[in-house]
Amino acid sequence: MQAKNLIYDGSFDGFLSAVFHVFELKLKHVTIQNQFENQNVLFSENENIVTEETKANRVWKGLKSRLSSLGRYQLYYAFLSEQPGIEDVLLDYIQYAFSKSNPIDKDYSHPSVLKLAQTAKMVGREKHRMEAFVRFRLTKDHIFFANIEPDFNVLPLIQKHFKRRYADQKWMIYDIKRHYGLFYDLEKVEIIDMDFPTNFDFTKTDSEYFSEQEFEFQKLWQDYFKATNIGSRKNMKLHIRHVPKRYWKYLSEKQPE
Fold first, then answer.
1. For 164, phi and psi rounded to 5 degrees?
2. Is pLDDT at 210 greater than 70 in this prediction?
3. What is the secondary structure of the chain as a DSSP string?
4. Is the predicted pLDDT of residue 221 greater than 60, yes or no?
5. pLDDT at 253 (0 to 100)
6. What is the rounded distance in angstroms from the CA atom of residue 155 to the CA atom of residue 180?
7. Furthest-apart CA pair in the chain: how many Å?
8. How many other β-carbons are positioned within 10 Å of the β-carbon of residue 186?
9. Which positions fall inside the DUF4130 domain (predicted)?
10. Is 56 exposed, middle or buried, given 0-12, 13-18 or 19+ CB atoms closer than 10 A?
11. Sign (positive/negative) of CA torsion 135, 211, 178, 49?
12. Quick one: 4 exposed, middle or buried, by C-beta within 10 A (0-12, 13-18, 19+)?
């Protein structure tokens, strides 16, 4: 039988729909690829998978009976890593889980279990970093705006944190790498996309979009950072360890004057 390359829409439900297809047809030689990362696989036949919530839910329900809560959390976190080939690791993990009667999420002798746990840990770290390093700027329409560029697709993971922490403020967090964001309107969080001007610089505070109050706020942060970084006490290596350089452009105290 010719190998199959299943193409899904990039969503978690889409991936689970592809997994359902594998089990339903008892496919043996198969790969799963995000449609945005699709590359021709030698000697494989491409097949587009339609996302069906009912089928995705059936797979997830089955996984609930086979995996611990840790295993399910690791599965979802690893999916959000978007690493090349992660879908095939997840499929192998799921097939292994369904072949066993006991939870397999700590069976690190299995390569896919180990890989999934390691990947989920990296995504979890990125989630916590984003929660710690996001800095909001006040726009002229009184919405607190923050832009991020995480290594992994962690927006779905951080929305609860910010909804709980800033429940009394309208805010928006936008992933400029993946071109979508979260908007909280004091009641619910919605997924949004936006058309920014082609010359829009996310690392600067443009007076056309942001309030004067925000400029004053950034000045306070910059002054504080200077005061706490007097030459004799400055430990740049330690600071980099606490705040990785790739996050600096999103911190108010690092904004150029």
1. -75, -40
2. no
3. --EEEEEE-SSHHHHHHHHHHHHHHT-SSEEEEETTS--PPTTEEEEEPPP-HHHHHHHHHHHHHHS-HHHHHHHHHHHTT--TTHHHHHHHHHHHHHH-SS--TT-TTSHHHHHHHHHHHHHHHHHHHHHHH---EEBTTS-EEEEE--SS--HHHHHHHHHHHTTTS-EEEEETTTTEEEEE-SS-EEEE-----TT--TTS--TTTB-HHHHHHHHHHHHHHHHTT-GGG--HHHHHHHS-GGGGGGSGGG---
4. no
5. 45
6. 9
7. 70
8. 11
9. 85-253
10. buried
11. positive
12. buried
Residue 131 has pLDDT above 90, yes or no: yes
Query: In Å, how far are 37, 72, 114, 131 from 160, measured between CA atoms?
Result: 29, 18, 28, 10
Letter string b/e over residues 196-220, b meaning 16 or more CB atoms within 10 A of that residue's CB: eeeeeeeeebeeeebbeebeebbee
Distance from C-alpha of 100 to C-alpha of 110, rounded to nearest angstrom = 12
The residues, any chain, with a CB within 8 Å of residue 118's CB and separated by 6 or more, are: none
In this prediction the pTM is: 0.78
Would you state the pLDDT for residue 201?
A: 60
Residue 226 pLDDT: 60
pLDDT at 224 over 70: no
Tokens 């299995």 belong to: 110
Q: Tell me the CA distances in angstroms from 146 to 97, 113, 118, 210, 239, one per residue in order.
A: 39, 35, 29, 12, 22
Per residue in 168-197, pLDDT tens? Answer: 998 889 898 898 888 898 998 888 887 766
